[in-house]
């Protein structure tokens, strides 16, 4: 089980033209900016490449490629180098923007494409589960965010109300 | 050892910042180890039974695209 190998396989899949662009999100993406937190899977956001003659893009070529390279299907995941990987489409404008603006990070002489810290925090704010809120707090406490960039993304994606609620809930001393 | 909560919180914050500042290779190796540990201690029941508290998968707020 080695997540660096998982990333290497995803890079190779991109180099082989199976996917156009990818970025690591979720807890693994957050690990590039924060302390590591236990997670069971890797969230890879991608733009699906529509197959010739088909209107709806399918993840099938990804699964076929990975199965041919030793991957094994497990429910909605495909296990690559011991890690279950979930491929997620850029399903809303925030994730589309995050994917476009993702940054290259160096991992042991290979590269990994990762969402920016600000996008990871805003996606967590939008997703809104307890552990997502904990992640937003981690980003704030670790001072991993550029406040201007973070606020701009919140405004652009109309999440001001969610942010104000979060601030009231977690960042003010008043009851 | 101290029972001063403010000092404990500060110490924990510093520890987390030190972890966050580690090289990414080390942090990814920690993720490998954390995952193995989590799998070792999790219950063997494949799906939570009714009435159990369990985590919901994220929705990532899919927006339906309008067809022209």
List the helices and strands and how they pair.
The complex is a heterodimer of chains A (175) and B (68).
Chain A: H1 3-15, E1 22-25, H2 26-31, E2 42-46, H3 60-68, E3 72-74, E4 77-80, E5 83-89, H4 93-100, E6 103-107, E7 110-114, H5 117-127, H6 130-141, H7 147-156, H8 160-171
Parallel strand pairs in A: 2-5
Antiparallel strand pairs in A: 1-2, 3-4, 4-5, 6-7
Helix pairs in contact in A: 4-5, 5-6, 5-7
Chain B: H1 5-20, H2 24-41
Labels describing this entry:
heterodimer, A: 175 residues, alpha+beta, 8 helices, 7 strands, 19% strand, B: 68 residues, mainly alpha
What's the overall geometry of chain A?
A: globular
Output the radius of gyration of chain A: 17 Å
- Which pair has the most extensive contact? A-B, 37 and 26 residues
What is the number of strand segments of chain A? Answer: 7
Contiguous low-pLDDT stretches of chain B (5 residues minimum) are none
Helix content of chain A: 40-55%
Please tell me the overall pLDDT of chain B: 80
Give the SSE string of chain A: HEHEHEEEHEEHHHH
Name the helix and strand elements of chain B from N-terminus to C-terminus, one letter apiece.
Answer: HH
| Beta strands of chain B, count | 0
Major sheet of chain A, described briefly?
A: 5 strands, mixed
Description:
The complex is a heterodimer of chains A (175) and B (68). Chain A has eight helices and seven strands; from the N terminus they run αβαβαβββαββαααα. Chain A has 175 residues and is an alpha+beta fold. In chain A, the strands form two sheets. In chain A, strands 1-2-5-4-3 form a five-stranded mixed beta sheet. In chain A, strands 6-7 form a two-stranded antiparallel sheet. In chain A, α4 (93-100) packs antiparallel against α5 (117-127). Chain A starts with a helix and ends with a helix. The model of chain B has no long low-confidence stretch (mean pLDDT 80).
Brief overview:
With 175 residues, chain A is α+β, with helices and mostly antiparallel strands. Helices cover 46% and strands 19% of the residues of chain A.
